[in-house]
Amino acid sequence: MTMLTLPGGTIEGLAENGYLSFLSVPYAAPVTPARRFLAPQPVEPWSGIRDATKLGPVCPQIATYGPVGRNATSGLAHGINFLTLNIRTPSLDGAAPVLVWVHGGGYAVGSANEPILQSGAFAASGIVEVTVNYRLGALGFLHIPGQPDNRGLLDLLAALNWVRDNIASFGGDPERVTFAGRSAGGFAVAAVMAMPAAQGLFARAMPQSGASTAIATMVDAPKLTARMCAALGTSPEGLVNIPINDLLVAQRDLCNQSYEHHDFDRDGAAAMLGVPFVPIIDGITLLEHPETAAAAGRTARVPMMIGCTSAEYLTHSSVLPAELDYAGAAGLLHERVRPLDLTGGGIVERYRAALPGHSPHGIWRAVAGDLVFQNPASRFARLCSAHQPVWKYLYGPIAADETGAAHGAELGAVWYRDGMDLSRQPERQRVTDPDFADQVHEIWRAFIAGAVPDDWPRFSADNQVVLHVAQGAVGVEADMFAARLGLWQRP
């Protein structure tokens, strides 16, 4: 066992697999009923020695968002003391680069305690790794009059501040922090990059599988509040007194409604994604859309690595009817593209012309995958590249009918460690080629440490190239998904 004293008290971690682990270390006070909708509060000091050898509770949640959401939902114990970090370090001495990782889950499910993130892969390769739990769903993102907005993002800021102040005790360099995440974790990274309070808290950024995909305005955010109030039979002021289980049931039902029945009039821009609990441009914590900030050079001006998988909507399409035709695909997409002043029929017609070999299922996968993941990543990369170094990657093979690497497929390889127990990885993300996984992990590790492959050119509006990371071949190619942005021009 290994002891370490922090401002809040002494913790005890453990040595395993050649690195040291300190699990469920608090970066803020427990989320008691009275604090559910407050900004994160300072760590409460403890007496004695705090056990940091085991994973603690995660943010309360109920499965939602269809098969993808069910896969991402945590089955671990919930609790109030979940504003915590899992820290793994190669050594308490020195000043190693630091990775701060934000988990995905549509801002409503998931945790930093899932088995896929417990490999210690980065600690084993010389990086101090930190995975973050934060408030999700209504706890983190529901607009409640009189309470701070974007509480989930404020949690992430609190975690980054804690890392800045304490990571040297774990052998990490606070001047070399990479802020990264995948899916909603990547969306959150892009949003935090646009928050004035985040300036100086990290030196590199890695949004993966998307960027600023779903951002609510103060026109749309109160609509979700009204839906929650109607579901719970209370007023906005009464939301603070709702039992947590009732709040979670209403949250699940609203998430399912938005995900299964997209409605622009009801949800605003969130209809594109079907995820209702999202960051809000409140004029206080988040002043503007991340893309607006990026265009003006007001996002964190740090080197950025950004990218997606080659078939982001493959798993999502498992819920489609088997007999889907092009008209049916257009109908399913119509409400999702209305926020962009487009129609389902119009966007399907454009994609059919551009991708003539695609079936109706393939067209739906292409349009939805581009809308939610590829387009935001490409736009954010273009906008940021005018002000800072940007490298873009694509993970997985280009296969017929948008059937390459599904959303999240890269996670097992990114978090692969030689000698790890592969049975701890979900089957959909399980490594089957350790040599390729080593290659993938090394690309991520090198960026965190301050390097990129020698032959990987920077991405820009004039040089739209990606590092295509696929089994059997890794190399630079023209970015076919950035080129598809042209299909989305308003009529």
Automatic annotation (TrEMBL):
It comes from the Bacteria. SUPFAM superfamilies: alpha/beta-Hydrolases. InterPro entries: AB_hydrolase_fold, CarbesteraseB, Type-B_Carboxylest/Lipase. Residues 3-488 form the Carboxylesterase type B domain. This is Carboxylesterase family protein. It comes from Devosia neptuniae.
